[in-house]
């Protein structure tokens, strides 16, 4: 089992969640809708200077479904290459 953490611009939240639910129908997840931070290329702090913000989605994924989650993120990144979409996978115990 893996903990999947997806951090991305709020503008693609619906795209990610819809495709994730279509691709992995039984997926359960939690969304933290407002996340501030600094990435490799820019800051998303929700301020006047740095107005954009991110969201965080996390889910526990069975090993066999990890490739499906990767495929979802790859597809969304292809549609929105400049949105800083990141997927982190951490091995987890059940």
What does this structure look like?
With 94 residues, the protein is an alpha+beta fold. It has one domain (2-91): Alpha-Beta Plaits, CATH 3.30.70.120. It has helices at 13-23, 66-79; strands at 2-9, 30-35, 37-38, 43-44, 54-61, 86-91. It has a 4-stranded antiparallel beta sheet with strand order 2-5-1-6, with helices on one face. The longest helix is centred in the C-terminal third of the chain and has 14 residues, at 66-79.
At CATH level 2, the architecture is 2-Layer Sandwich
Q: What integer value in Å does the Rg equal?
A: 13 Å
The shape, in one word, is globular
**Total individual domains:** 1
Kindly estimate the percentage of residues that lie in beta strands according to DSSP: 25-35%
